[in-house]
Fold:
Amino acid sequence: MRRKRRRKPAAQPDSMRVPPATIPSILAAPCRLRRWTAGMTGRVGAGRWANGRYCSAEPAPMPTRRLSIHTPSNRRPKIWRRALLSVLFAAPLTFIASPLRAADRVLVSLGPFERSISVQALRIYAEEGRFTENLRAYANSYATEAQLQQIEQLLKARLELNLSPWAVSQFLYSDQGDLLLQRLGEVVRTGSNLSGKQALRSALVLAAADGENGLTPLNVLEHFPVDTVRIDLTRAFAIISSIEQLVNQTKQAIDAIALISEDNARLEPVVSTSQINPVRPGRYTVSLQTLTQEQFRGCLSTPASLYSPADHSLVYIGRRFGNRPLEVDLYLPVADRQNQPPNAMPLVVISHGLGSNRLTFSYIAQHLASYGFAVAVPEHPGSNTKRLEDLIDGIVRNETEPAEFVQRPQDITCLLNTLERDPRFKNLIDTDQVGVVGQSLGGYTAFAIAGTPIDLSRLNQECKLDETLNLSLLLQCRLQNWVLDSNNLRDPRVKAIIAINTLGSSLFGEEGYAALDVPTLIVASGADTVTPALPEQITPFTWLTTPHRYLLLLQNATHFSAIDVPAEDNVAVNLPPEIVGPDPAIAHYYLRTVSLAFFQTYLNQDETYRPFLSARYIEQLQDDQLPLSIVERFTPDQLAQANARKP
Structure:
């Protein structure tokens, strides 16, 4: 019998290569699919995290037993198998869907009642303002005219973040993104009433890749990779109710603080600026030099360790500082014939927020240095702009690690140790008189270095992430179930702090804030949705017992109002004006002025600057676009009374 000749394996045809249009689908896919796809296309990108595992940058074959997809070497793959590359999404155990398959109807459920609305009807309404018969029946039965207008605006609202599909994918695979999707997935569900978490991830990535329509709710619906989207109005109304309650309580607290500030201002004299005007630059010109990693070698941080019983992870923090690539901008006043800076200048350290860098608060540094302060601005390498870029590029999985909560205060301690032993600065800078300014995670850093003890037992009780509307709690809960060998990271050289848009309500708790004993100024923004003013600044202020404390409230500012973006700074994400809020230059004007008055009073012990912290001067300072209030006392009882009022 004649043996058949074995045919050679066919060469891979060009049609097997994945077209660029399917890349967004691949970004939403599980790790093993992305590795297999990388093997076919050559390379999608560098190594990436997905579904809790790291995807190798090197192409790797797909394990055929796991998904039962076989491509025998002696036959040409069928078309449906090639198409499968663009139809698998991040739900290997839940569902398989195609980017070409999109939701065509929305099933709105409220208790036992359900109503089906076509996505096409929603698009017609959003674009033309016209009701189809399908939508008219719903509108007549369930929605008021005002609600319909809100729906129309919501459907067309576009999030202008200028993020690539890859960046959106990487965020949604981070711990914070995953938790947000998990909560949203309880409201936006699949037609079979399963969590919509995985489908939402896919839809968001594909909507981000749609350059024409972008990230709008309607476009996300149209990219939802199942036929039917089920929206659970019971859960949605519960979340909306919680949001409304938080917004109302925040407004009531802001109104109460503004009223106290106004009453105090009426009782105080007008503050003259004829002799001293803290708004103006000081008399010194300012020099800037950058201290590099090499200059911090040999600085040994205070040993500390973090332990996670859940996975037996141990992080020992106490290495020589040269292993942490710290860079510090040092602003110093320059002597001239008429102006000689003091020999021992007080030092102010500025700690930037998560995903930021040492340039974002240079406007405060320049102003303080022009008045004779030395100002050091470290860039925390584990939570800076570079770290955010690495998250977007898939090099790291999360925006920061739990160890950063310890390493940030240690950055400042090592900075002070270095300046103390450096002969150039030893007699020039007084490292026993130190103030710290911090924004967001930098605000936490300021509280920690000033001696506010961390309470991880309280944090573990409060990390109910399926119930919170406080985005900053997602970051604080990175320390959930970890054990810290020392709960106090205090450096006694720190004598006063300013915390802007700070977080830490669950990390420190009432007892922690009450233990703080240095002069403290908390700055809150009334429209802050990242570190909300009520739980993260106003309530913690009521817990403070230090005699010298201030709460400065920028009533309609946002989390980003305090942040400056110099022209030379290449930011990872450009935020639209709607998110940034009112002109940030006004907030910068406030913060330059008030930070100078605060540190002149409590570091330089210059009482002539105390009036510039009064309610009367704040009233003189404010711009109508950004109303301003300041109080020195606001008790838990006053807060409770404010929240008890009906909106």
In short: The first helix runs from residue 23 to 27. The radius of gyration is 28 Å.
